[in-house]
Write a structure and sequence with these properties.
single chain, about 60% helix, 7 helices, alpha+beta
């Protein structure tokens, strides 16, 4: 049996650990991201037990400075949970999955809070983005919609919207493709 790393399981475990300390999961995810980007920026980082011990020492030193300066608004138990979580990932040589874990944790929180994330691709930004968001809210019964926008010049015009596994293609390119199929099907008769 292979030992598979499942980011969603780790994300749930992290969220549960933070919440058991009385902390807010959002704050835990935020500090986890800060620690992860800092660790990733370290030159010549290696993973494993010895690296985990060195990094744990550096994180604790940094957290202590933050606490003493009063700059941190994140509770000590949440900082401790994030530190321990990262050390476990380092020791298990699984730190490379940290961004997946953070992404999964955000998805879990969004689902809990009724937040839907949709991707909107376009050549030119649609004038009716607020109407699109409201339509998504009604369709999904979400409390809030987050639109991730991206320019895609292949669309020619219009837009393509992705909500989870569903795609709504209102692009000129897709309309031209449908017209071409329609004409080629009727043209042979």
């Amino acid at each position: 049996m292979t030992n598979m790393f499942i980011p969603s399981h780790w994300a749930r475990a992290f969220i549960n650990s933070v919440e058991k300390t009385g902390g807010k999961a959002e704050a835990g995810i935020e500090i986890l991201g800060v620690f992860a980007s800092w660790i990733t920026s370290l030159p010549g980082i290696t993973y494993g037990v010895s690296a985990a011990e060195k990094i744990e020492h550096l994180i604790r030193k940094g957290v202590k400075k933050l606490s003493l300066s009063g700059e941190s608004n994140i509770s000590p138990p949440v900082l401790e949970t994030a530190t321990r979580f990262l050390v476990i990932l380092l020791r298990k040589n699984a730190f490379r999955y940290i961004n997946l874990v953070i992404s999964e944790a955000k998805k879990i929180l969004n689902k809990r809070q009724g937040v839907v994330t949709a991707s909107l691709e376009y050549v030119f930004p649609p004038e009716d983005k607020s109407r699109i968001k409201e339509s998504i809210k009604k369709y999904t019964r979400a409390s809030r919609v987050v639109l991730k926008e991206r320019v895609n010049t292949d669309l020619i015009g219009g837009y393509r919207l992705r909500i989870g596994d569903e795609i709504i293609d209102a692009s000129i390119r897709s309309q031209l493709r449908e017209l071409e199929i329609c004409l080629s099907g009727n043209g042979g008769n």
